[in-house]
């Protein structure tokens, strides 16, 4: 039975009012955090550059006595603290291309993110101690070269990172893909559920947001700005499929997204939605088939209830890497650093522009196909996960600058 809140939010006027309220609160909190860190960074003379990150990382490793062992592809032993749930990015396959990979997945231990986020921190510590035991066993068999973590303060205990660094000296990298909206979070034991409690510890903090590099620096961290990548083994064009979907959107139906789709349908656009939260639809087994069947794949870079507070998304690389229908998403200056807008992807800055671009590219299939083709070429050349990993490992001194995929 639906709650009263769910019932009210399905009434268009009530849903719009609620969305606007949540958007204002999100922007207020974000702007307060942004301005605080900007003032701190300016006062301390902190500025993010890749060169500075490289120097900071090498200096930290040197001071704790770590001497990197240069390895070739196929030889690098990774310890991956990565929960494999349906919405996780495809991080693990390309780790196997680096070499032996030991994966710790707390979901396989019967622990859920919901349990960790609603605990007092004891379950997190217990689960991380199990991860430490598995690290020690793997390291005794074949020395581990680096640790790759995808998680936040609800999942990763500070003690786990600190123990690996102090006992073994092994470099630790932590990845977060949503720093802008999950920086603090709630208090769980002696840590916040977001990234702030971990920010100072990793030898590299991999963030998809250029702005939040400043936040990491202020907390004593060593940030590196890179978007996520894609798994080319999964995301590739499906042959012999009909282009029977004019416009598709794959993703949850929450926040401002329903309003955008409603706007398009109001203007007689035939948009098909796939994901939890959409009326009559649930998550699909083969997203790539949808990407391939669609003439236009729609993206939205907004966060939660904010349509214009943007973040790089996994779909930016998964859809483009698939090379099916052309990818059309809202403009994000961070994303524009990794694609040539108008040539490899298409971007809109308003709902009216979105509508006009859809109408145009539905009438100009040849142009749309060429953009899709060039986007896939760019992804294969630069945006696989192994490209990200090699960048990290070069900074850490584990692979040489000459090492290629």
Care to describe what's here?
- This protein is of the alpha/beta class and 405 residues long.
- It has three domains: 1-45; 48-228 and 391-396, Rossmann fold, CATH 3.40.50; 245-382, Glycosyl transferase family 10, C-terminal domain (Rossmann fold, 3-Layer(aba) Sandwich), CATH 3.40.50.11660.
- It is built from 15 helices and 15 strands.
- The protein has helices at 4-9, 12-44, 50-63, 92-98, 113-117, 122-141, 158-168, 179-182, 213-218, 257-266, 287-293, 315-322, 351-363, 365-382, 385-396; strands at residues 78-81, 101-104, 146-150, 172-176, 187-188, 191-192, 204-207, 223-225, 245-250, 271-274, 294-298, 302-303, 306-310, 326-330, 346-348.
- The strands form four sheets. It has a six-stranded parallel β-sheet, sandwiched between helices. Strands 10-9-11-14-15 form a five-stranded parallel β-sheet, with helices on both faces.
- The protein is globular, with a radius of gyration of 22 Å.
């Amino acid at each position: 039975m639906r709650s009263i809140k769910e019932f009210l939010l399905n009434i268009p006027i009530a849903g719009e009012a609620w969305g606007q309220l949540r958007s204002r609160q999100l922007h207020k909190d974000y702007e307060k955090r942004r301005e605080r860190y900007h003032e701190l960074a300016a006062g301390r003379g902190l500025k993010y550059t890749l060169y500075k990150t490289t120097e900071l990382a090498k200096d930290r490793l040197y001071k704790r006595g770590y001497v990197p062992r240069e390895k070739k592809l196929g030889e690098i032993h990774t310890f991956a603290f990565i929960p494999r749930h349906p919405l996780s990015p495809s991080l693990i396959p390309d780790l196997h291309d680096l070499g032996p990979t030991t994966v710790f997945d707390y979901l396989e231990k019967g622990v859920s993110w919901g349990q960790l986020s609603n605990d007092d921190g004891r379950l997190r510590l217990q689960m991380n101690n199990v991860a430490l035991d598995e690290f020690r066993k793997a390291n005794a068999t074949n020395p581990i070269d680096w640790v790759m973590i995808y998680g936040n303060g609800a999942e990763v205990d500070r003690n786990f990172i600190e123990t690996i660094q102090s006992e073994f000296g092994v470099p630790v990298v932590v990845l977060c893909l949503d720093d802008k909206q999950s920086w603090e979070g709630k208090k769980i034991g002696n840590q916040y559920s977001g990234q702030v409690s971990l920010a100072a510890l990793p030898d590299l903090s991999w963030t998809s947001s250029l702005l939040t590099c400043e936040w990491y620096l202020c907390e004593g961290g060593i940030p590196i700005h890179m978007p996520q990548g894609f798994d080319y083994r999964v995301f590739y064009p499906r042959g012999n499929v009909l282009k029977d979907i004019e416009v598709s959107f794959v993703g949850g139906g929450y926040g401002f997204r329903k309003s955008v789709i409603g706007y398009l349908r109001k203007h007689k656009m035939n948009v098909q939605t796939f994901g939890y939260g959409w009326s009559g639809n649930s998550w699909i087994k083969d997203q790539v088939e949808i990407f391939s069947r669609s003439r236009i794949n729609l993206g939205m870079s907004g966060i939660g209830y904010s349509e214009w507070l943007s973040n790089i998304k996994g779909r930016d690389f998964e859809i483009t890497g698939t090379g099916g229908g052309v990818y059309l998403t809202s403009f994000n200056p961070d994303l524009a650093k990794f694609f040539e807008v108008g040539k490899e992807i298409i971007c809109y800055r308003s709902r009216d522009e979105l509508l006009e671009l859809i109408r145009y590219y539905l009438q100009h299939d040849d142009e749309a196909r060429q953009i899709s083709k060039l986007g896939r070429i760019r992804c294969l050349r630069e945006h696989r996960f192994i490209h990200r990993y090699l960048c990290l490992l070069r900074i850490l001194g584990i692979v040489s600058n000459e090492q290629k995929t």
